[in-house]
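// run 5 | inverse folding | seed 20
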């Protein structure tokens, strides 16, 4: 007799994704408004109440299909990422001493049909993988301007084994 593995629960009946959530990570869904002329989505509105720190710096990132940017973390700033185009997987790993979610891995999948503004606290290691077939782009609105002389960016080698997560292309099902 052939048997298969039962699928795990991926979402609640209300559509909320099930899985680990790192303390301090905020996922603010972005609504895309579509009409006959095209579409738009709101990147940020202070009325949402999801950011205490003001907007002080912004930059745009492009990731080629299948590529990963990361592992990185910051000691002084939080990152605030908003997907513009493509399909990405954002993977987070909490290295904060004393955090109730220290050692937790969290995955967030975004696409043009599921955009969000993601706040990543300082000392949460993160990487973004383009899991689509075309370029993926996002905007970062960090809580501090980039310091070109003394960057607040720390990298961990993807192959070091220090982060308990391996990116793969996956065969699907």
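// decoded
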């Amino acid at each position: 007799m052939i048997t298969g593995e039962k699928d795990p629960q991926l979402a609640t009946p209300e559509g909320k994704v099930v899985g680990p959530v790192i303390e301090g990570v905020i996922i603010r869904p972005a609504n895309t408004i579509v009409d006959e002329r095209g579409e738009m989505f709101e990147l940020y509105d202070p009325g949402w109440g999801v950011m205490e720190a003001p907007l002080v710096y912004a930059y745009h990132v492009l990731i080629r299909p299948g590529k990963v940017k990361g592992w990185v973390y910051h000691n002084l700033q939080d990152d605030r990422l908003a997907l513009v185009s493509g399909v990405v997987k954002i993977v987070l790993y909490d290295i904060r001493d004393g955090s109730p979610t220290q050692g937790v891995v969290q995955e967030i999948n975004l696409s043009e049909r599921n955009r969000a503004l993601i706040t990543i606290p300082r000392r949460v290691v993160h990487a973004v993988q383009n899991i689509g077939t075309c370029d993926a782009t996002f905007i970062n609105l960090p809580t501090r301007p980039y310091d070109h002389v003394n960057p607040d960016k720390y990298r961990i080698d993807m192959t070091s084994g220090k982060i308990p997560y391996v990116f793969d292309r996956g065969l699907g099902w």
